[in-house]
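Good day; I would like, with your permission, to put a structural problem before you. I would ask you to consider whether the tokens describe a fold that such a sequence might reasonably adopt. The full record is reproduced below for your convenience:
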Amino acid sequence: MSEVIAYMSNAKHIFGDGSEIEIGGLELDVLAGQKVAILGPNGSGKTTLLLLLMGLLRSHGGRVEIFGLDPYENFDKIKKNIGVIFQNIEAQLIAPTVKEDISYTPRNYNLPADEIERRVQKVLVLIGIEHIENKIIHYLSGGEKKKVALAGAMIMEPSLLILDEPFAGLDPRGVRELTALLQLFNDLYGTTVILSSHNVEISAQFADQLYVVAEGKIAIKGVPADIFKDIESLKKANLQAPGILELTYELKKNGLSVSPTSSLHEAVEQLTMLVKKRPQ
């Protein structure tokens, strides 16, 4: 049975001014090696959920665990095994050059210079940014900055990678490159990936488990195929369903023998069969 990497149930954070924010609803339980997407519109509670998992916010109620430990109380124990990419990349990249930024974490852990260099070169090559290792970060494109942040997050080869809105600001090519890199680390190291996004289509193509957060509650969870059977729940959560899914859903509502799907290939197959069955 796979190890539970992350768990959350009825978490609550109380701010200094007494205001509260809760993440209720269904339980979140992420297994080792899973690729999980937390879906929800802006303001739904996605980022709060991730901050609780990272141990950057304290849970004053319910239960939050990373590797079986309270992440806030055991932050120093778990931080080496978690890679993080925040939505605001600019604030995360703190060194002048690419190489200096990527090497920041291993230097902080006082690794030997030759080990730091080995790790830096390895992650540069894996991500495909060795040609910009001496570049000034300020002059990089948004996609390049995301790759540098990913290199810094993965240089210690953590077993868990948490990303907040990683696809924001990326063009289609940048999205494809980033998802391919996340898949690479999942395949290579068995890295568990938890990301937040409001883009249902991109997340469903990458993740094998989806959680839908709406108004501070985990309202839906399951594999993409099961969640996409209930398009009305996605709409209630103020999420835009994939275009192919909406098309096949509306065709079924209008009496055609079509099963709702987000797969272009499956949709084409179904529509082709319908056309072939039409009387000549």
The CA atoms of residues 258 and 270 lie 6 Å apart. The chain has two domains: 4-225, 242-280.
